[in-house]
From TrEMBL, chain B:
Entry keyword set: Cell membrane, Membrane, Transmembrane, Transmembrane helix, Transport
SUPFAM superfamilies per UniProt: ABC transporter involved in vitamin B12 uptake, BtuC (SSF81345)
Source organism of the structure: uncultured Rubrobacteraceae bacterium
Record's signal peptide: none
Residue ranges of the TM segments: 12-37, 42-62, 68-86, 98-119, 145-163, 168-186, 192-216, 228-249, 261-284
InterPro entries assigned to the protein according to its UniProt record, in alphabetical order: ABC_BtuC-like, ABC_TroCD
Pfam families the UniProt entry points to: ABC-3
Protein localization: Cell membrane
A single BP term in Gene Ontology: cellular response to iron ion
Protein name: Mn-Zn_transporter_SitC
Membrane-topology annotation of the record: Multi-pass membrane protein
């Protein structure tokens, strides 16, 4: 196992996005987006549907090539920094009928460190079990994943990211389709990660909870609308600019 | 029955046919699991049809029906078909089902034209290529079994070595890519293994029925387990069992075709699995839901505050 937490360059940003422009064929999805994420912060990427949030995440992780610009993780291209990154994809992106159980899914977070050919063994099982305990899912380790509720599936995905033992967590809509109690459990977990010095980036769409949950916000609608600490950047004017006005909840925003 | 079993071990033809069918069943069952879990069940169908022009071209160029030559030709066009499907899906707006349909029909069409051309060109031993369409297991000889065995061992070895990688690729490709696994290349490799399974199978069951040997054992195995490793083992066993049963039933002398009988044997196992399968079978879910209903209705759990209008 490679030691993960040593040698993370501390002088650079956990995540830096420089002038990223991207398009699906002739349709621009991101236009000259730049921002930096400082260490140890809970950051929300917020914007309307089609604002390019998930695309941005894909580009950061090298899953898609931008037309221009680049993203770096601790000053390096993602391919040289992936051991510091934990990833939580959208829950709906996989087939939960797949023949596997919760513990097995969490062990997948260790596959990168195991490398080619090697199978997970007793040590990996124990690590995965600890991660399931951290998300309160230890009792469900042997449960076939289709028999878990949406919130439980989300927590299994989070446990898998915990198994990656990362410094920077990229999570795509972790609150989508989970009940209030699960949402609180997930928030508590993200705060715990932050307390241990990790940086957490969350693609988020519930404007009402941004001020409560996050330190910083990146307001996106194809181009960058605003970015910074929530109290400075998450203003009614900026939100209206990102969503094109007509957003009712705004009373809650500072 | 006893005679049949004795023939299985001592009759040269029956033994080879049964062995070949068993090998086909194991490989088809194994790779079929990945195929259906990745919703690529019909990939095998398209690739099987895509072998036909390869078989014909190999025959035209070599003028002989040496199995290894014909299989190489089959592998070549099937591989080409596979790359074409992956490219079409990746580069155009045509979706996978349409891409499969295009490759299947174009390649099969080309094969049909070539078979007719060979038939009309009057070369002496041209006839018999059409046996690849529905398969003719009785033509399997010892050399074929050896070739099939070697190919099968190689394919199974790759699956054993890369089990963890293939599992992750099948369940969550984006996550696999984020960990640094070359998802594109693994995808091509897995598809090429399906090509291997197909060329092992076309001689016995033919290009038309080959897809069944990828899909049916895997779908049956899924009814019995919720673990991928177990599913693959059961699927391989079911595949082998279907192969041997088909070969033996065909050998009873009723002059029935082996390939279709193999597929029908596999289907019989599927029906049994759908009813009795421990994980997803009808019977157990029915018993389970009855039990649940009884338990729920007799519930005295005080943590549920309001229990309907009773009381």
């Amino acid at each position: 196992m490679k030691p993960n937490n040593v040698q993370t360059p501390s002088a650079t940003f956990p995540l830096e996005v420089k002038g990223i422009t991207a398009a699906y064929r002739d349709k621009p999805v991101l236009w000259d987006v730049s921002f930096q994420v400082p260490e140890g912060q809970l950051v929300a990427i917020v914007g309307p549907n089609g604002a390019g949030k998930t695309t941005l995440l894909k580009i950061i992780m090298d899953l898609m090539q931008p037309a221009a610009g680049r993203a770096t993780v601790y000053g390096r291209p993602f391919s040289k920094a992936r051991q510091w990154v934990g990833y939580v994809p959208q829950r709906g992106s996989v087939d939960w009928d797949f023949p596997t159980n919760a513990l097995d899914v969490v062990q997948m977070g260790l596959y990168g460190r195991l490398g080619w050919f090697r199978r997970p063994g007793r040590k990996e099982r124990e690590t995965a079990m600890q991660c399931l305990e951290k998300v309160g899912m230890a009792d469900f380790a042997d449960r076939q994943i289709s028999q878990l509720s949406g919130g439980q599936q989300q927590r299994v995905f989070l446990a898998r990211a915990l198994a990656q033992d990362a410094r920077l967590y990229l999570t795509d809509e972790p609150f989508a389709g989970v009940d209030y109690k699960t949402e609180q459990a997930i928030v508590a977990l993200l705060r715990e990660l932050k307390a241990t010095g990790s940086t957490v980036v969350v693609v988020h769409h519930d404007l009402g909870t941004v001020s409560d949950y996050f330190d910083r916000v990146v307001l996106l609608n194809k181009s960058l609308v605003a970015e910074g600490p929530v109290e400075e950047a998450f203003t009614p004017e900026n939100v209206a600019a990102a969503y094109g006005g007509g957003v009712k909840y705004l009373a809650g925003a500072k | 029955m006893i005679d049949l079993l004795r023939d299985l071990f001592f009759d040269y033809t029956i033994r080879n046919v049964a062995l070949g069918a068993a090998i086909l069943g194991v490989v088809g069952g194994t790779l079929g699991c990945f195929a259906i879990l990745r919703r690529q069940g019909l990939f095998g169908d398209a690739l099987a049809h895509a072998t036909l022009p390869g078989v014909c071209v190999a025959f035209i160029l070599s003028g002989a029906k040496t199995p290894i030559v014909l299989m190489s030709g089959a592998a070549l066009t099937a591989g080409l078909g596979a790359l074409l499907i992956l490219t079409i899906v990746h580069r155009t707006r045509i979706k996978q089902d349409a891409a499969l349909g295009i490759v299947l029909s174009v390649f099969f069409g080309a094969g049909a034209v070539l078979i007719t051309y060979i038939g009309g060109s009057g070369s002496g031993n041209q006839s018999g290529l059409d046996r690849f369409i529905f398969g003719q297991a009785a033509t399997i000889v010892r050399d074929d079994v050896i070739t099939m065995g070697i190919l099968a061992s190689l394919a199974l070895l790759v699956v054993v070595l890369l089990f963890k990688e293939f599992k992750l690729l099948s369940f969550d490709p984006a996550f696999a890519a984020s960990l640094g696994f070359p998802v594109g290349r693994l995808n091509v490799l897995l598809t090429m293994l399906i090509v291997v399974a197909v060329i092992i199978g076309i001689q016995a069951v033919g290009v038309v029925l080959m897809a069944a040997m990828l899909i049916i054992p895997a779908a049956s195995a899924r009814q019995w387990t919720d673990r991928l490793g177990t599913m693959i083992t059961i699927s391989g066993l079911f595949g082998a069992l279907s192969g041997v049963s088909g070969a033996l039933i065909s050998a009873t002398g009723a002059n029935l075709p082996t390939g279709p009988l193999i597929v029908l044997s596999a289907t019989a196992l599927l029906v049994v699995s759908l009813f009795l399968g421990r994980s997803q079978g009808f019977l157990w879910s029915w018993i389970g839901s009855r039990r649940n209903r009884r338990n729920v209705l007799s519930n005295t759990d005080p943590s549920i505050p309001y229990r309907g209008g009773v009381g």
